[in-house]
Amino acid sequence: MQARVARPAPDDSDPLSIQPPIFETLEERTARLARESREKEISDAIDAEIEKSRANERRGPKPIKILLLGQSESGKSTTLKNFQLMYDPKSFRAERASWRAVVQLNVVQSFRNILDAVARIENQEQPSPGSPQSPKRGPLLTPEILGIKLRLQPLADVEKNLIRRITTAGSGQVDPDFRHGSSNVHPSKGTLKEIAINSTIPWKHAFSRLLKSDHRSSFDSADAIDWDDPEDPWAILNQCSQDMIQLWNSPSIKQLLTKKMVRNEDLSEYFLDSLERITAPRYVPTDDDVLHARLKTLGVSEHLFKISTDGSVRDWKVYDVGGQRSLRAAWAPYFDDIDAIIFLAPISCFDQVLEEDHRVNRLEDSFKLWTMIVTNRLLKDTNLILFLNKIDLLRTKLTSGVKLRDYVVSYGDRPNDLDSATAYFKRKFGGILYEKSPSPRVFYCHLTTVTDTKSTKYILSNVRDMLMRQNLMKTNLLA
């Protein structure tokens, strides 16, 4: 029998690259051609299906595009979390492992702020060099508080551990003092700088190994967690729990924080009021915990949602764009073909300055950003939806006696209450829209606390219905 020699296949993984043997019988050739014919029919059918899908996409409705804008810490990322909770709850809850670490970091950084305030008072009360007198403790620094301060020193190591894990290589920026355990504080307001995470890098994956192998897609219960992870800080937090609770609830500490002007925004009060639950051995974040968890993001993140209303399902693309001054140049490319901008103005920040420039008032910065958006001709046909955000913090400030007129001269002698203040802000932002917009626009304005799930869900539902209706009218599907 004559030996047959076959050419080697250039790539066994690609059946189309396989060459027929140099010598083959008539029977083998007939079988090969029949097999190739069947394979070609299958390939052609696949190609046809792909082209059909592409054609349908071209003919089908374009996704509705939403851009979230506002200065840093205005609430954009929390608004995006609300979109996820409403329209993609499965993936929202699958990320609980990563947010659990952020909650823990928020707690320990809040206590670092408190302990730094205690340390500053303690240093002020030390005797001058060479003085024979012993330090005179004020009523705020009792031996009990100083003992708690000493026992809470392990929180510094917890903080460094959490920051190291969250800011994986290339994913975040952090003050060098954090990494080296320094107690240095921000020179302008006595608080620690926050870490910032690059939204384009999947930092959350660093915590996926916290889940047991049979719970990789879910984090809805304590049974899903691998509690034997040696780097998890829950044991230290649980050990320090009672001291943390006692220190936070101390009237002396409340007075000290007021004296040192430590702002509510520098403390995660929502979590500090729930320390017993959060430091428990088998703590799992709730939806509200995730919404309250603070983590500054850099860059642009894009999320796709399938949203249905009145029997119609549409793709929505929501873009969260970083609000730091250095990142605002990246906004313009997203102005093209955008359906709506949700602009978040944190009106509780009337007495604060920008982190990037302490000469600029945060409220004034929001007015300038809003004016920039309103006057941009690329956006003349874009819906502008204003969220006057953080009204809960505004109410707290006004109730505590902080005078809005001391920071906003044009507020004049109006009453220093929430209703009067929000009415003033509505008129101020609305006036900019009516005077500066290159084309007539409807003024969509909502008073929001985006950490409040119930109210935010209602507002976003209204926004959804309005945009869906407008989109149908544009495509002549609705009279």
TrEMBL record:
Renumbered residue ranges of the record's region Disordered: 1-21, 34-57
Gene3D superfamilies linked: GI Alpha 1, domain 2-like, P-loop containing nucleotide triphosphate hydrolases
Instruction: Note whether NADP occurs among the keywords.
Output: no
Report the InterPro entries cross-referenced here.
Gprotein_alpha_su (IPR001019), GproteinA_insert (IPR011025), P-loop_NTPase (IPR027417)
Alphabetical GO biological process terms: adenylate cyclase-modulating G protein-coupled receptor signaling pathway
Keyword GTP-binding included in the entry's annotation:
yes
Origin superkingdom: Eukaryota
Which amino acids does the record list as binding Mg(2+)? T297
Tell me the protein's name: Guanine nucleotide binding protein, alpha subunit
Source organism of this protein record:
Gymnopilus junonius (Spectacular rustgill mushroom)
